[in-house]
Amino acid sequence: MPQVHPRVLTGDRPTGRFHLGHYFGTLQNRVRLQAEGAELFVVIADYQVLTDRDVAERLAEYVEELVLDYLAVGIDPERAVIFTHSAVPGLNQLLLPFLSLISAAELRRNPTVKDEIAHSQQSAVSGLMLTYPVHQAADILFCKPGLVPVGQDQLPHLEATRTIARRFNARYAHPGSPVFPEPQALLSAAPRLLGTDGGKMSKSRGNAVSLAATEDETAELLRGAKTDAERRITYDPVGRPEVSSLLLLGALCQGRDPQSVAEEIGDGGASRLKSLVTDAVNDHFRPIRKRRAELADDRAHLRAVLTRGNARANEIADRTLAEVLEVMGMKY
Ligand code: TRP
């Protein structure tokens, strides 16, 4: 059946709360796509947490935090399908035929996997680490999306997904009626926001302002942000990365460009810069944080959103799996 609006699938690992980098890098984009009429699928990739660690900790809590963040930023649970892939057996079963379509050498060549292996704390590389991009192909293809918004690091996985779709169709589909689409990546231009220590902004490094932080926590984190000794504030991402990242954050919150923020501060120095950015962040996120706090009081609603999302994902996955088994001749 032709779809009037593109189906869009994207997802996250439940490893902690979202921070401002996630918000400006991907969450805002999802809300925009939804406003444009896209049918949004959001997978909470719980099994994927086990790729670079032995035990996935605090999963139930982190899953709930992600759902809270999604709803608080404006993803509409009446229209979007929010689900955890562990709750969708039909999706997981797609992994088996998909694994047969990709070689071990191809799995070992995936640059994002290689990078994750290099940074992993584990002594041995697990089978899941090597094969999770194929599982990701399953959590993408089960709902046959047209578009997958991703960051740069996910492009190899999307390429693998397209390869698997193409090979599956070539090997099993009836000529002229492909089972799977080859979804397009929608590369989100993530703004270059640094952590407060000047390094990469990251959940695990304690250098990020989370979406859910209070105004005081926000102020405290930003007060401690690394800057430089020059009093005159200028926007120069190469020469002054820390100052420029703060300017960019303030500008993103106020919907203006970072140069004009720099000019406004002029000779005000780092303290004026930090207080302006703190106000900008707190003003922009006030309604989102308020909504988040209200939602957090209604755990039954959060559970209902996930239960409904999982039910809808199961319906679709069962239908896709039936089609797959049919064309593979596994219908007895
Ligand atoms: N691999 C993604 C990450 O580490 C999470 C993810 C899982 C995902 N399934 C996906 C992203 C499907 C986009 C589409 O953040």
Explain how this protein is built.
It contains 13 helices and five strands. The strands form two sheets. A three-stranded parallel sheet has the order 1-2-3. The protein has a two-stranded parallel ribbon with strand order 4-5. The model has no long low-confidence stretch (mean pLDDT 95). Helix 7 (127-141) packs across helix 8, helix 9 (215-223) packs antiparallel against helix 12 (269-296) and helix 10 (241-254) crosses helix 12. 54% of the residues lie in helices and 7% in strands. The protein starts with 6 loop residues before the first strand and ends with a helix. The longest helix has 30 residues, at 299-328. The chain has helices at 20-35, 59-73, 89-93, 95-99, 104-109, 111-119, 127-141, 155-172, 215-223, 241-254, 258-265, 269-296, 299-328, and strands at 7-12, 39-44, 81-84, 147-150, 184-187. It is mainly alpha-helical and 332 residues long. It binds tryptophan. Tryptophan binds next to strand 1, helix 7 and strand 4. Tryptophan (TRP) binds at residues 9-13, 43, 45, 48, 136, 139-140, 148, 150, 154.
